[in-house]
Amino acid sequence: xxxxxxxxxxxxxxxxxxxxxxxxxxxxxxxxxxxxxxxxxxxxxxxxxxxxxxxxxxxxxxxxxxxxxxxxxxxxxxxxxxxxxxxxxxxxxxxxxxxxxxxxxxxxxxxxxxxxxxxxxxxxxxxxxxxxxxxxxxxxxxxxxxxxxxxxxxxxxxxxxxxxxxxxxxxxxxxxxxxxxxxx
Length: 184
Prior knowledge:
globular
């Protein structure tokens, strides 16, 4: 197991998935690329950014949720999504992740008006953004998308107003977390 989740590289499968992301983005006329500071997020979009000859802007706020003590025990996903303020000792709550991600998204939208943007992030981070716009988005939806990595979803904004969301591409996989038994 990789000790530092931030520096964990893409697996061979992850590299193949990154090529799928690049192939999908090649005809989209992307202007700006943002990424979580985690290596696997960055590397997932690196070839696409190189295709467009664009730099990837790292934003710390797009990082994975900080896991606390016993963060992957059975039932924790449900507990966190039932109470968005709940977090295990040393971890982040759904609300904490949502606040930093919405702050990042607002800033990105302001800086990149009328541009096509790619943001590489993580399942919880993306789920909190979806929950911000669709309050009914919850644990079942989160559990659905963590099996879909990579997951390409398009948000269409007018300024900072969300107009539409469209799922484009995903690869269904089984999440490898310890908590998986309570999904079913």
